[in-house]
Amino acid sequence: MTASRMRRRVAAASLSLGLSIAWVSMPPAAADIPPPDEGWTLTFGDDFTGGAGSPPSPDWIIDTGTSYPGGPDNWGTGEVQTYTDDPANIAQDGNGNLQITPLRDDSGNWTSARIETQRGDFKAAEGGAVRIEARLQVPNTTGDAALGYWPAFWALGSPYRDNYWNWPGIGEFDVMENVNGKNETHGVLHCDVSPGGSCNETTGLGGSSPCPGETCQAGFHTYRFEWDRTGDVEELRWYVDGQQFHSVREDQIAPTAWQNMTSHDGYFLLLNVAMGGAFPDGDAGFATPTASTEPGHPMLVDYVAVYNR
């Protein structure tokens, strides 16, 4: 049992006995990585149980700056923040969560954080399936104070690391994207060529859903992506709290494009909170921070897990 979970149990016992305790607020809810369902195997997991202020484990790379070296400016999406490894922007909170916190300095410059897995081999084996999952709470802010917030949990084809200019052909699976503090999660596939192609770039093929029960901002939700190769036709599926809201089948994509995004060594996973960028948000335009946008609202990540069968 982690120290944070022990503290919660001690606090609950103290309250039931009428004993006084020195603190009254409970830390954000943390959960163990769920054991795999029958037939599945846990092939990667991190539940961020490090001490308060500690960096992510060595399983992760912390990206810094405004682009990959030699890659597109502003991470290819028009984001306005600079990513750092400052614990103020990214650190474990000591309660079983990773915090990614956008901040703005007195000159109006934004900083935030982005991490990616060292491993880049996450994929479904031929005849098998892969499940990529995270339990997290997006920044708890809405309305004008949330304008420009763009948290995401996603996967990029590993050949991108050798090129930085081969997107979207190598594939991108956006497991969870949230923008401008709306109670709505987006799942998106990027592939083929840009602009246009069978993945309708640069928008991609996406679906969205409100978070079940409490809003995406108000609580933790589980976001899952599955790549299923067990049938005659491969299928990609997106879920929030176990409810499927989007899918793309192999026969919807140009055969060469599908081959290009599925035949390489696999994918690496990313977590980040961008500020600003070219995420279309209907009548609201793009994710654009304004003078009303409030800094300091973190995305809290309880765990990340990958399962295969």
From TrEMBL:
<keyword id="KW-0378">Hydrolase</keyword>
<dbReference type="GO" id="GO:0016787">
    <property type="term" value="F:hydrolase activity"/>
</dbReference>
<feature type="signal peptide">
    <location>
        <begin position="1"/>
        <end position="30"/>
    </location>
</feature>
<dbReference type="InterPro" id="IPR050546">
    <property type="entry name" value="Glycosyl_Hydrlase_16"/>
</dbReference>
<protein>
    <submittedName>
        <fullName>Glycoside hydrolase family 16 protein</fullName>
    </submittedName>
</protein>
<dbReference type="InterPro" id="IPR013320">
    <property type="entry name" value="ConA-like_dom_sf"/>
</dbReference>
<dbReference type="InterPro" id="IPR000757">
    <property type="entry name" value="Beta-glucanase-like"/>
</dbReference>
<keyword id="KW-0732">Signal</keyword>
<dbReference type="Pfam" id="PF26113">
    <property type="entry name" value="GH16_XgeA"/>
</dbReference>
<comment type="similarity">
    <text>Belongs to the glycosyl hydrolase 16 family.</text>
</comment>
<feature type="domain" description="GH16">
    <location>
        <begin position="28"/>
        <end position="309"/>
    </location>
</feature>
